[in-house]
Amino acid sequence: MSNLEPRPPAHELGGRAQASAGPALDLLPGKEVLLGEGTHVRRLLPTLGRRLVGAWAFVDHYGPDDVFGSEGMQVLPHPHTGLQTVSWLLDGEVRHRDSLGSDVLIRPRELALMTAGHAIAHAEQSPAVHPRHLHGAQLWVALPDAVRDVAPDFEHHTALPGFDSDGVRATVLMGEMAGATSPGTAHSPLVGVDLALSAGADVELPLEPDFEYAVLTASGSADVEGVPLTPGAMLYLGSGRRTVRLRADDAAQLLLLGGEPFEERIVMWWNFVGRSGEEIAEYAAQWAEGDRFADVPGFDGYRLGAPALPPLPLKPRGRTR
C-alpha cells in the first residue's frame, strides 16, 4: 500500500537509545489520511510521539468500510525500497499485482508479505466483483542495512499458525508466539499477532522482555493492561514486559506488534526507506525516469508519481518527539 499524502514528511528515525527502556502505557494518536480513490485510513505509525515499534515503521488501519456499489480500494502502481509490506485483511478482498509478475487475490487472515529490497512496484485494488465490506491493516517493516538491497520477493501464505487461550484466538502473521511460528520471512527479531477476543475474555499472553510492543484495536473495545481501547486506537507498551493482560466485555479484534528496538537510523519518505536524504532523492528520480523499478505486468492505467521532495534538508529525528 502507498503513502498517498500530497506532502509526505521525511522521517529520520531509529537507534536503541531512543526506545523505551522499560514498560510504558502511551496512547498513540492516529491521523486520518485519504488513500487512493475513496479509502480513508487511520495512520498510527509514524505519529506524534512515536515513529518505530521494533522494526515496524508504518501502520495504517482502514475500515470497516461499506464498499457496496463503489470500486473499493484503488491504489495504482507505486514503488518501494528498503522495506517489507505486510498486508492483513479482516474483511473483503484485495488483488495484489507487482513488478515480479505476482497476481494474487488476498482474502481475510492470509499473509501477503512483499519484500521490496532493492526495488519493487505494485498495485492493490478491490476486484471488480468484491465483498460488501473492506477492513484491514497495512504494515511496513524496515529492513536492516545488511539486507536492505536484497532482491525483491513476494510471499502469500493462506494458512497461518496460532493458538487458543482463555477466550482469545491468536493467529501469528510474523515471528513467533507461544510456540506458533509464522512462515513469513523476517529479517529482524519481531512479532505480529492477530488476536480475536471473545466476549468476557481475560487472558495474559507471554512477551519477550527485550522487545518493545504496541497493541492496535481493529474492532470492538478492549482493556489492555488496564487501559481501555476503542476501535482504531493504538497503545504503546514499551519494553521489559514478560506478559500482557487483555480483557474484553464484548468481542474485539486486536493486533499485537513488537520487536527488538531497531538499532539503525533510517530515512523514510513517501514509499521509500533509505539511509540519507540524498539516497531518497535518487530513488524518487529513478522512479520518475523509469529506472530501477520495473512495470507491473498487465496493469492497464497510469502509475502514481512521486510528490515533490521537501524544500529543506532532512532534520534528524529519533523514535520519539
TrEMBL record:
This protein's UniProt keywords: Iron, Metal-binding
Molecular function terms from GO: metal ion binding
Disordered: annotated span: 1-23
Domain Pirin N-terminal: 40-141
Pfam families noted in UniProt: Pirin, Pirin_C
Record flagged with keyword Iron: yes
Cofactor(s) in the UniProt record: Fe cation
Domain Pirin C-terminal span(s) in chain numbering: 193-290
Cofactor info, note text: Binds 1 Fe cation per subunit.
List of residues binding Fe cation: H78, H80, H122, E124
InterPro entries for the chain: Pirin, Pirin_C_dom, Pirin_N_dom, RmlC-like_jellyroll, RmlC_Cupin_sf
PANTHER family cross-referenced by the UniProt entry: PIRIN (PTHR13903:SF8), PIRIN-RELATED (PTHR13903)
Family: Belongs to the pirin family.
UniProt-recorded name of the protein: Pirin
Protein species of origin: Modestobacter marinus
